[in-house]
Amino acid sequence: MEHKLALIPGDGIGPEIVREARKVLDRVCEKYGHTFTYTELLLGGASIDANGVPLTEETVALAKESEAVLMGSIGGDAATSPWYKLEPSKRPEAGLLGIRKALNLFANLRPAYLYKELKAACPLRDEIIGDGFDMMIMRELTGGLYFGERKTIEENGVKKAIDTLTYDENEIRRIAKRGFDIAMKRRKKVTSVDKANVLDSSRLWRKVVEEVAQEYPEVTLEHMLVDNCAMQLVKDPKQFDVILTENMFGDILSDEASMVTGSIGMLSSASLNETKFGLYEPSHGSAPDIAGQDKANPIATILSAAMMLRYSLDMDQEADAVEAAVSAVLEKGYRTGDIMSEGCTLVGTAQMGDLIAAEI
Ligand code: IPM
Ligand code: MG
To answer: CA torsion angle for 206, 208, 209, 210 (degrees, to 10)?
Structure first.
């Protein structure tokens, strides 16, 4: 059967890491007898250069026509890139937020997992790491501060900036359900993270999450304040299974969680709507400082492609094979610069892709 996929190479290291993920997907096709067709879409800086805007209706329409989208990364160096001379709504990041909203990708899954081979890269002490940890951050992606009304005004000669944090109960309910569904397939624990000691939106969040929890009696629910969660992630990351949280808290906590796994270059993500459709991208950014130098770690993108196989194409066996291939290559001691440690073999972006494809 033929599957229509879209690729967004994007900016910075995006094109080179997407190229390696495609190599791995081509190998999956060869081995399991699938056919994938790819449409390349423009987003972010690449779209600004070609069309003057970071997201076009054409990109949204073509994404909708495909079963899933695999993305590299968007954005450039804010200090030097001309993209950042544009007004905020025309910059690369606005394209990413725009496509998330246009495709209604409200559920962002960010797994943070410590590979035993990468223990040396983990900044935490051995007794904290123990047997490792494995958590899933469920971040709400189309609401909250990111999409509330914002403006900068001047009152009596004083500049004032306003961002608004809004959530309605339906937005909270649908992400909470996703969180509990995922927990049912994992260790059946949800930690809902909020700031209910201060924010109304968090108090509503907590109430709705508790209602949803009634439908999942097997899942243990706990609430945690976001400041405490930031601390617990480095104090005892093993305690977490699913972390369920709103957009801004999820943005911050997922970077923190990725750092405790050793390298942000390892972390994949999936952004899903109510259907099987999803946009898959590494959790890291476009690293313009190393773009085009064959130094980037393509593993997060390759693992994002594995998530795409699993969640959008129902190809569990194929997804398992990609994940196992990544582990096998790490076990053999191959490393890109970001995860390099003594006694390992340093490889570039393309060779890492070749090695993983060859393990499938
Ligand atoms: C992320 C990124 C984006 C976000 C930026 C690039 C707008 O940090 O995907 O985590 O804040 O959502
Ligand atoms: Mg982020």
So the answer is: 90
